[in-house]
Amino acid sequence: MVAGVRNAAVDDPDEAESFASDGGSMWRLYATYGRENVGDAVLGAVMTLFARSTGLLPPLLLGLAIDAVLLGTRRYELPLVPGTWVPETAAGQVWFTAGVLVAAALASAVASWLQGYGWNHFAQNIQHALRVDAYEVLQRQDRAFFDDTRTGELLSVLNNDVNQLESFLTDGVSSTLRLVALVVGVGVVLATLNPWLALVSMTAVPLLAVFTFVFVRRVQPKYARMRGRVGELNARLENNVGGIEVIKTEHAEAYEVDRVREASRAYYDANWDAIRTRITFFPGLSLVSGLSFALTFVVGALWVLNGPPAFLSGTLSPGEFVAFMLYTQQFVWPLAQFGQIINSYQRAKASSERVDGLLRAERSVGERADALTLDAVAGRIDYEGVTFGYGESTALARGDDDGDDDVPRSPVLRDVSFDVEPGGTVGVVGPTGSGKSTLVKLLVRLYDPDDGVVRIDGHDVRDLSLASLRRAVGYVSQEPFLFYGTVRENIAYGTFDATDEEVRTAARRAAADEFVENLPDGYDTLVGERGVKLSSGQRQRLTLARTFLKDPAILVLDEATSHVDTETEALIRRSLDDFAADRTTVAIAHRLSTVKDADEILVLDGGRIVGRGTHAELLDADGLYANLWRVQAGDIEALPDSFFEEALARRAVLESDGGE
Ligand SMILES: Nc1ncnc2c1ncn2[C@@H]1O[C@H](COP(=O)(O)OP(=O)(O)OP(=O)(O)O)[C@@H](O)[C@H]1O
Fold first, then answer.
1. What is the pLDDT of residue 78?
2. Residue pair 332/203 in contact by the 8 Å Cβ criterion
3. Own/partner pairs for 284-290, CB < 8 Å, 24+ apart?
4. Residues 463 and 528 both lie in one domain
5. Do both 345 and 449 map to the same domain?
6. 3-class secondary structure per residue, 113-166
7. Share above pLDDT 70 across residues of the chain, in percent, rounded to a whole number
8. Pairing of strands 584-588, 554-558
9. Is 251 helix (H, G, I), strand (E, B) or coil?
């Protein structure tokens, strides 16, 4: 049931990539995302072939001009051109040749433009669609996926890897076509001109093939490793920019520079390793090509001078020889370019596996095909025997590849059962780490329980559509989050069609209207990234306003007023009581006075409910709640020794294993 981003089986843990699919994904991605713009690809392909064939003309014309015009050893004849078009005089033939050359150059220029247009349009559209889709899939991942994956790495997939796929299409695929057209076209012309000499000039081909094969084998894992390192580096940088305040207040700049240096060095090393292989490969290819060119020259030149070499027959005119050498050059040098294509292919392949891995990442919190839409919500909540533990939910976090749920999950909630009647209020209290936030996260399905059921109006929340579930529940989390944007946008986030008046009313209820009006641009003030330009109490009030505006049937408040001062809390409480009066409310509070009037208070300790009842009942029971109440009343002397012993024991457990 646990989400699993499946990794390709890897022998070397160093190569265990965060996002990797089972390979073979690149062409599938291109096919899927290129379907709609296949016309552009066809235009690009046809124009590539056309541009290439116009490139075959100049050497042929040059050879003809040397023999027919300069040496006068053969007639001026061109295939497909009627003899009557060709001028009789030598000067006329020179101008005619020039005219054909210019026409070929013009045709080639137009074809190149169309080819560039076709390929680039095709590739840009794929890049755009792929990025948006990958983001959409990413956004649908469950909370556990984000717990285990670093943001920088995700950004690296959405940016670098998607771009790599685009650049292989524009450079690699079109170059491959050009190369194939060239090899076939030139090969045919060479074989027609002089088949034996053509064989000599092609000696390079098998050598180049072996060379390339070896290169691919060696460079492939190096590129995979390099992409992984880019992700790690991005993750580190992203983390540090986010935590800049702590870095500064802890004076940890030097420490962080060291850590960035280390991550950058790891990328450098991986990249350098790939670069070394690459820069050895290309000169090697050029050398083979150069040797083959020289060999063709020697054989061809001796043939023109002395007639055919032993055991060969036929003639070779100087014009044919020049044309031959020009073709050979056209043919052999670009073969070396083949290495670049393979190189770009390998990089794109490594990227495609990461993009595909992300696109195929499984989710544990999904929506059933026949999910129920909850229209009118009464607001009854019940938890029945709920047990839940956080596990390393993705294969990428575990570093294995079997995707099985084989990580022991220490329960953070154990056999929790309670219910709240429609319109009722339940308070949840307990020491830090006792599982209070986790309890409510199961209600909005940020996670699903390992055992037991959470129900709203009698329906298992897993049977409800996520849209209707999240519409029904308004969740004010412990950590208020604001997006970069205006105050108004942040309040209306989720209720995008709210009017200005509705936004104001919500702000007023959350005791935010006054401070907002005092901001430089009122509701149009930009709040900065994550709302950094506001105080945490102000941020909290805006997220409360957001929930008031949403007007949900069920209200979940996770320490919703923890960041505000007592006076503001009193103001918020007044409107909260009003707002919560006719809707079901689950309120988590450290400050027990906040939940004192709840219909029922649950006391959590170590993931279990260790007490429940009204405030008066719990005081009477004289358990953990009564002691916590004494602490908050400042009545420390009245606390029994056992309270301190238990508190110390709890702390030791929390610090040793994070909650188990
Ligand atoms: N995303 C997570 N991944 C793994 N463990 C987690 C995660 N979130 C919380 N925990 C662990 O689960 C336990 C319960 O956490 P929870 O946030 O529910 O406690 P809480 O009672 O709300 O605490 P507090 O009062 O400090 O907010 C803690 O031990 C915590 O370390």
1. 80
2. no
3. 284/211, 285/208, 285/211, 285/212, 285/335, 285/336, 285/338, 285/339, 286/333, 286/336, 288/204, 288/207, 288/208, 288/211, 288/336, 289/204, 289/208, 289/332, 289/333, 289/335, 289/336
4. yes
5. no
6. HHHHHHHHHHHHHHHHHHHHHHHHHHHHCCHHHHHHCCHHHHHHHHHHHHHHHH
7. 90
8. parallel
9. coil
Is 399 a domain residue?
no
> Radius of gyration over alpha carbons of the chain, in Å?
36
Structural domain includes residue 318? yes
Note whether 231 and 293 are same-domain residues: yes
How far apart CA 333 and CA 187 sit, in angstroms, is 14
Closest ligand 1 atom number to CA of residue 439: 18
Residue having the nearest C-alpha atom to atom 7 of ligand 1: 390
Pocket test for ligand 1, best of 407, 434, 604 (most atoms within 8 A of CB): 434
pTM more than 0.80:
no
The tens digit of pLDDT for each residue in 12-69 reads 333 334 455 445 688 888 888 888 889 999 999 999 889 888 888 888 888 888 888 8
- List, in order, residues 6 or more apart from 195 with CB less than 8 Å away: none
Long-range contacts of 26-33 (CB under 8 A, 24+ apart): 26/165, 26/348, 26/349, 26/352, 26/353, 26/356, 28/356, 29/126, 29/130, 29/165, 29/352, 29/355, 29/356, 30/126, 30/165, 30/169, 33/125, 33/126, 33/129, 33/130, 33/133
Query: Does residue 337 share a domain with residue 219?
Result: yes
Q: Write the pLDDT tens digit of every residue in 221-276.
A: 898 888 889 888 988 888 888 888 778 877 888 889 999 999 999 999 999 999 99
635, with CB counted inside 10 A (0-12, 13-18, 19+), is exposed
The angle at the Cα of 172, spanning 170 to 176, to the nearest 5 degrees, equals: 120
**What are the tokens at 71?**
């040496």
Q: Are residues 431 and 353 in the same domain?
A: no
Amino acid at 107: A
At 657 the pLDDT is 52
With a Cβ cut-off of 6 Å, ligand 1 is lined by 147, 390, 412, 430, 432-438, 478, 658-659
Q: 7: Cβ–Cβ under 8 A, 6 or more apart, which residues?
A: 16, 17, 18, 20, 357, 395, 396, 399, 400, 401
Domain CATH code at residue 80: 1.20.1560.10
d(CA 594, CA 560): 10
**Total number of domains constituting the chain:** 2
Are residue 429 and residue 562 in the same domain, yes or no?
yes
Q: Best substitution site from 2, 410, 412 to test ligand 1's pocket, by max atoms within 8 Å of Cβ?
A: 412
Residue 126 lies in a domain: yes
Q: Does 408 score more than 70 pLDDT?
A: no
DSSP state of 309: P
Answer yes or no: do 279 and 347 share one domain.
yes
Position 5 pLDDT exceeds 50:
no
Give CA torsion, residues 481, 487, 492, 497, to 10 deg. Answer: -150
Same domain, 496 and 627: yes
State the angle between helix axes of 38-54 and 90-140 in degrees (0 to 180), rounded to the nearest 10.
Answer: 150
Q: Which domain holds residue 487?
A: 381-387+412-657
Q: Residue 546 sits in a domain of what CATH number?
A: 3.40.50.300
Q: How far is the CA of 251 from the centre of ligand 1 (A)?
A: 28
In a domain, 375, yes or no: no
